[in-house]
Design goal:
Layout (H helix, E strand, L loop, with lengths): L9 H10 L3 H8 L6 H8 L14 H14 L3 H10 L1 H7 L10 H14 L2 H15 L7 E9 L7 H8 L9 H5 L6 E5 L2 E13 L5 E8 L8 H4 L8 E4 L6 H9 L3 E4 L11 H14 L1 H11 L11 H25 L1
Helix pairs in contact: 2-6, 4-15, 5-6, 5-7, 7-15, 8-15
Length: 338
């Protein structure tokens, strides 16, 4: 009788995970992780302080940790624990049971260096280039929209809020207090619901539902103010869909100047309601525009990406950028199965 495999037998448990469908396996196989290494090396490479210093963790592995964090909505401390606890995470990161695991401070520091480098968008663009090379982005039209990303609420006095809205820092705030205060997030109200934090503005490919471009702003920024930032030369001669928040003469002019076919929802006004023809046009536009709601639905329901734990717009740009990149990676693996 052969030796029975024990509960803690690593190989046995990993093979069992495969049988039950480990989603991280496909992510590991299909995403070109090494493509990010040269970019990460430029951002993070430093000369060692002394010959006896401990070598840094692998840059690609640390980058994959940030992706895992967004996929599973984990804090830095939770991430450290889950790497030690879950074999699927260890395999995804290329770690064995006896390998060192980055602690929460190391994870925080890696993300902080990425934030200070201001290069998150370059990593996003690198993967978008890969998607274009693979031909999964059709470039046959796009959809734009924005979604709120809530931030930890601040407890400030009326005077402090007045200073912040005016673009200045309250004089009596110490450096330590300032580090704990978000002076970039803003309040806004939509459909009677108050929101505090930021907005994730995205432009998606209407066919593949992959994110083309994104921008991060305070929550109070109107959706239409960011449209021009999302446009590129590749949008010329293609359709652009959006809800009526993007309607109006200024946006119409921008689209005309960029040779973009306007498929934005038409809006009725007091004394000038929509005609039946306009309502019909809006109806068929809605069928296509709804695809961007699938994107936000995945980000919110699967990643809990409608909330961030960070302070300040620079860190928000990093985390939201990682969220959009993580979505594109997951979406790409789905498209590879179809």
């Amino acid at each position: 009788m052969g030796k029975q495999k024990g509960f803690f037998d690593e190989d046995y448990r990993l093979s069992e995970l495969e049988k039950h469908g480990d989603p991280l396996l496909k992510l590991n196989e299909l995403i070109p992780w090494e493509r990010f290494r040269p970019l990460l090396k430029k951002m993070f490479h430093k000369q060692p302080k002394s010959p006896g210093g401990r070598p840094p963790y692998d840059y690609v592995m640390m980058f994959k940790i940030l992706i895992l964090q967004r996929l599973y909505n984990l804090s830095d401390s939770q991430m450290q624990f889950q790497i030690m606890d879950r074999l699927s995470f260890m395999r995804f990161l290329g770690l064995n049971l006896n390998d060192r695991v980055p602690d929460e401070k190391t994870i925080w520091h890696f993300r902080e260096v990425l934030t200070k480098s201001g290069k998150m968008e370059i990593l996003f663009e690198e993967f978008r280039t890969f998607l274009l090379d693979k031909g999964v982005i059709a470039e046959s039209g796009t959809i734009v929209d924005a979604s709120f990303v809530e931030a930890p609420k601040q407890r400030n006095t009326k005077e402090e809020n007045k200073d912040i809205k005016g673009g200045s820092t309250p004089k009596d705030w110490s450096d330590n207090k300032l580090r704990q205060k978000d002076v970039d997030a803003r309040w806004t109200t939509k459909s009677g619901v108050k929101h505090y934090g930021y907005k994730n503005h995205i432009k998606v490919d209407k066919k593949s539902k992959l994110v083309h471009r994104y921008a991060v702003t305070p929550a109070s920024t109107h959706d239409s103010q960011v449209l021009e930032e999302l446009l590129t030369a590749s949008d010329a001669h293609h359709e652009l869909y959006a809800d009526s928040a993007y309607s109006g003469a200024p946006i119409k002019t921008i689209l005309q100047e960029n040779n973009i076919r306007n498929r934005i929802h038409e809006k009725g006004y007091r004394g000038s309601p929509l005609t039946e023809k306009q309502k019909e046009r809006n109806k068929w536009k809605s069928k296509i525009r709804a695809r961007i709601e699938h994107v936000f639905g995945c980000i919110v329901n699967s990643f809990q990406g409608n909330f961030i734990r960070t302070i300040g717009i620079a860190r928000a740009e990093t985390v939201i950028g990682i969220t959009n990149l993580s979505y594109n990676m997951v979406r790409y693996t789905q498209l590879c199965r179809t």
